[in-house]
Amino acid sequence: MHTATPIHFSPAAPNTENQQSDRNPIVGGRVELQLLTTLKCNLKCSYCSLGVGEVLGSQVHVEYDVDQLSTFIDTHLQGKVVYVTFYGGEPTLNKPLMLEVMRRFPRFRFQLQTNATLISKLPDETLGRLSNVLASIDGGEATTDAYRGRGIYRQVMKNLREVRAKVGGSITARVTWGNPDTTFEELDQLVGEDTPFDYLYWQFVADQQYGGDSLPKRQAVLVQMIDKFFSRTDVLYPLIPLMGMVRNKLFPTRAQELYAGRAQCRVSTHLLNVMPNGEIYPCPDLLYAPDMKMGDIKGNWLKPSPLQLSSEMPCERCEAYSWCRGNCMKNLYNGYVKQDVQYRSNVVEPICELIRFMGREIDQRKPQAWFEQATLPVRKQIMDCEVYEYVEIMP
Ligand code: SF4
Ligand code: SF4
């Protein structure tokens, strides 16, 4: 999520409560409520996807109250394991909502997706309840500051070091890999010694950054990552996309159990993005598309996600499908259903090529034999890492 190119959708008829399907709109036993606490942000990252469709800054105040949220949860999410991701804009700009939701629903798990510039202002009680912090960073200092503004890298690292001991769960570096010149070393250092991060998750930027020699450059970095991943069986190299791909290749049933075999970013099964005005959408990058609306907190209705794999998409004929599961449904939808041919050839297809490349490189290193040699803690992380629940897994 997070990065996009403008796509224009034709408005669908407004959804109403009586359009709600009879079947349970949530597939499986878990649900992620991603609450966009505000669409305001204190940074101006050059690739921000909320800039598309003029979403960024469009809703500053939350228009539903926590009682309405509670009624919605009681009506539609009964019996599910619920976890909440605070998202934005920059979610920490609406601290009161975060605190209220955490106090009102103490049984839930909580994650914060943040640019980490304000995280040290959160109360210790809040930090202690966070199962995971997804902190956005773009690589090393030069790359991060080029996208986010001068001094941001140092500020983020300082803040995260300051709060590290207070955060109850993990801290994951969330990288949008935009620049083709990003090096292995700058990504590697994010999970090196003396880092505040436990894991690295990256996503390939959904923007036109795949021309010229940018694919071979990215592939060279990927080879270094994959080599390092398989170089040890006693210590995990904590790169979530590699961990998830290896898991899916070795244990394909896990993807069936956890997402009914659908996209691992959960948009087709159990991810609800709640806008500040209470409208619900499956993908945080398609908040401006009326035909993607799937529910409403104030109206207390919910229907199944409209963002599903369809016959126009190439996945079922793809060598990667058994473990990729359709990577980014937004990209596939824009490229193949909305038939944005330029986006398809300049963004979607190059990313798919990178995914297939990673799959082949992993296979060459004999993941089964590696797993058989791996220590139990490494195997446990590959199988059950909690962070899989909080990120898209696929890059
Ligand atoms: S479809 Fe999934 S991976 Fe793609 S932008 Fe949306 S949430 Fe992210
Ligand atoms: S690599 Fe692309 S085409 Fe292949 S399964 Fe993944 S998303 Fe679908």
Descriptive overview:
With 395 residues, the protein is an alpha/beta fold. It has one domain: TIM Barrel (Alpha-Beta Barrel), CATH 3.20.20.70. The chain has 14 helices and 10 strands. Strands 6-5-4-3-2-1-7-8-9-10 form a 10-stranded mixed sheet. The longest helix is centred in the C-terminal third of the chain and has 24 residues. The protein is globular and about 55 Å long. The N terminus is likely disordered. The site of one iron/sulfur cluster (SF4) has 10 residues, from helix 11.
| General shape | globular
**What is the CATH architecture assignment?**
Alpha-Beta Barrel
CATH level 3 topology = TIM Barrel
Q: Sheet with the most strands?
A: 10 strands, mixed
CATH superfamily heading: Aldolase class I
Cα separation of the termini:
10 Å
Instruction: Work out the helicity level.
Output: 25-40%
Oligomer: single chain
| Total count of helical runs of at least 4 residues | 14
In the residues, how many domains can be counted? Answer: 1
Query: Could you tell me the radius of gyration in angstroms?
Result: 20 Å
Q: Which cofactors or ions or other ligands sit in this model?
A: iron/sulfur cluster
Beta-strand content bin: 5-15%
